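Final report, closing paragraph on structural work. Over the funding period we assembled a curated collection of sequence-structure pairs, and we close with a single example.
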Amino acid sequence: MLFILVVIGISLIEIIGKYKLFLKANKKGWYSLIPIYNDYVLVQIAEVRWWFLIILIFTRISMILSFISIDETLFFNIFDIISNLIYFLTLYCINYNISTKCNKNYIYALGLTFLPFIFYPLISKEKFNNKKNVLPFGVV
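Its predicted structure, as stored:
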């Protein structure tokens, strides 16, 4: 029970941070409450290519299917590892552009990728520069 409350609390902190970030990026804050649309708006804010969203969606589906999967063969384990690496690389590229627009460096991008419940509230307090030029592929 305590674990569930902690997970809900951490999720709420991340959602509030994204809510404030969306407002600073001239988007509606409630977009942060809708799971897939939330990613679509992040891709728009980061100004990366549209297929980054497709990669995020497919790798998340792969993560969900790996939890449901009963068959524990070596192929599925290697596939899960590769899928997770692709997911985190894609998310890092998106977060790199977002942190660049907030005049932060790659450390904030790593934080947004691996500790979003800490770094989204931090970066939402920074000045957001929507006109700053960013790379269309993030870091890559």
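The two ends are 41 Å apart (CA to CA). The chain has six helices and no strands. We thank the funder for supporting this effort.
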